[in-house]
Amino acid sequence: MSFVKIEEDSDFSMHNLPFGVFSTRDNPRPRIGVAIGDQILDLGVIKHLFTGPVLSAHQDVFGQPTLNALMGLGHEAWKEARGVLKKLLSANESTLRDDVTLRRDYTDFYSSRDHATNVGIMFRGKENALMPNWLRLPVGYHGRASSIVVSGTPIRRPMGQMRPDPEKPPVFGPSKQMDIELEMAFFVGAGNKLGEPIPIEKAHEHIFGMVLMNDWSARDIQAWEYVPLGPFLGKNFGTTISPWVVPMEALLPFVQPNPVQDPKPLPYLSHDDPYTFNINLFVSVKGDAMKEAATICKSNFKYMYWTMKQQLAHQTVNGCNVRPGDLLASGTISGPDPESFGSMLELSWRGSKSIDLGEGGSRTFLKDGDEVTLTGYCQGHGYRVGFGPCHGKIIPALQQ
Amino acid sequence: MSFVKIEEDSDFSMHNLPFGVFSTRDNPRPRIGVAIGDQILDLGVIKHLFTGPVLSAHQDVFGQPTLNALMGLGHEAWKEARGVLKKLLSANESTLRDDVTLRRDYTDFYSSRDHATNVGIMFRGKENALMPNWLRLPVGYHGRASSIVVSGTPIRRPMGQMRPDPEKPPVFGPSKQMDIELEMAFFVGAGNKLGEPIPIEKAHEHIFGMVLMNDWSARDIQAWEYVPLGPFLGKNFGTTISPWVVPMEALLPFVQPNPVQDPKPLPYLSHDDPYTFNINLFVSVKGDAMKEAATICKSNFKYMYWTMKQQLAHQTVNGCNVRPGDLLASGTISGPDPESFGSMLELSWRGSKSIDLGEGGSRTFLKDGDEVTLTGYCQGHGYRVGFGPCHGKIIPALQQ
């Protein structure tokens, strides 16, 4: 289909065409492009070829240094762009840039039932594992946008206040319970006006595309700080996303039936069309002394209980406005099997058992020098639609 | 001191010189200015007069449509600008604009001991009023930046999910417990790099100035959603700030000793210099049928337990990065006397008694058409340093 050679296991097949921001050695100016195989199509160079009814008047969005302007044009524009791109391919020696978007607000949901149940059992016991509101609405909270970074950015172990012994005063020091969270997130495209909700029937038109996300967490800091207003410093020292935004159009062929929701959600959260996606997910850890990374989690995005449509409808039902570049994340994705648990908190069952890394190594939480990589892809017949790696290495705390 | 006539009770005396964004009938372009009496000094027109060692190379910041660039220059630049401004005054017929800054991340703290105690007594009883972490660190959470609006913007009553009867399923409808929160907030000036905390000794240099804030709250939505990840839709449908940013230099003459903190905070939160401010605060409500607004709260910013230096040092101690234009808010400010309680939740003691508005009117929570105005000022000898009004009117819910 393309003159670019694409391996069968490439994340970036013709069926994908994810958007990103890149620069080249010869031209360091950040500009937007589309990944295809191991090449990047520079959209600025071919912007005059977007001559369809919507884009002909907005070719300038392809010359921007971020994706926000394209996202803001809305669903019809994205479909039109995708149609043009399928016909056009060229090659460039390129390096990825970190500013995919000018990110604004960031929401983190808590929409995996297995994850919420696991955490509930650990902290409140089996009888009260799920809070009363959990099956009624997609619980979420506002996260920190400033500390969202792109794959490859090192993550410094945070200093902070914690209370390891509840009988003694709190102490200050480097976190001893550095964890990962396997998540996915979607970028909002066109936004809404303050005071005017996005109904669930229109939600898809506002969802631009998806990335992988590692929501690094310091469990000891989080445990001490989070009552009653939620996570804060235990989460906002770094959140890593994968560098390419995979359009929803590329993911729709991998849609499958939604999970049964009982009790039935209120009407503003109800939709019958499938919006659950079969995306294979993996987490690997490579310690300083290890030759190869060890896979510690095999999961799938299909394990989500609440859909992205439900999340966006809920986020805006009170009139809250979303804007192009806003990011809404799934929360930790865990499946029913222990190997699919999406955090070390769950994999080590709150530190009570060790996670085997092979080569004689093991972990309960992360050590300095550990490299964590999230990967994910949809498997088609002879091709993949993938995300590229979401990678970060833990560097030692800055001692004061 | 100035050729502009300034009334003794003007918010904008020569001792204030707050920054804002304005436009005029003749020139609708948004630009930055300084309020003086009932006039505005256009900083773009006089930018060539900023010839000091820092600003001479950065005169362009005064030609920007927001304050972010000036904020980002840092403390020495702000002091230099203030020195120049005290010598220069001119007049313009002007209207205020809403985009004071390109706002980015927004944090809301919970730093009034009386407020936290009142809420704790109502929801958990007198014995467990303050959570164990409250006296150890400034509890806070991430708020929504997109829905921060400037004084005068109408606030639509939000629709949402709530559970008024815990024995029955949740219901959907307009909030019946619309409340205000009397807060103040500060803008971050120069930021820090991800991974590099701002030590408390340097915090003042990163704090640009302050505004009044009304953190509108839907108590019924909040009560049902907030466990375990904190407030979300109960808070993010609108947050109003006053239009002028009062520089910290203008507030320093009104500093007073900090409250005694027992237990003594950890070293990263400890500072001995006073950073508590004597700012008189008022909340008034005017119903549709009322001729005059009724004052429902008289309070003072000096009632805060945690200082802004402590808030900023805590926010960044884990390496979280802040950026010019970030907003950090106090949380509801309540004092020891019932008349100083900063929310209707407290003033009506969770709806159990009515708040007298005179003229035969009363409230427990807000009605459609109610106009709420926050005002605040420091009282000098024969002059004031004030904030201008922080105003909003409740408009009816958008029925689906």
Automatic annotation (TrEMBL), chains A, B:
PANTHER family: FUMARYLACETOACETASE. Its EC number is 3.7.1.2. This is Fumarylacetoacetase. Its cofactor is Mg(2+); Ca(2+). Belongs to the FAH family. Mg(2+) binds at residues 215, 235, 239. InterPro entries: Fumarylacetoacetase, Fumarylacetoacetase-like_C, Fumarylacetoacetase_C_sf, Fumarylacetoacetase_N, Fumarylacetoacetase_N_sf. It comes from Denticeps clupeoides (denticle herring). Keywords: Calcium, Hydrolase, Magnesium, Metal-binding, Phenylalanine catabolism, Tyrosine catabolism. Gene3D superfamilies: Fumarylacetoacetase, N-terminal domain (2.30.30.230), Fumarylacetoacetase-like, C-terminal domain (3.90.850.10). One of its GO terms (biological process) is L-tyrosine catabolic process. It catalyses: 4-fumarylacetoacetate + H2O = acetoacetate + fumarate + H(+).
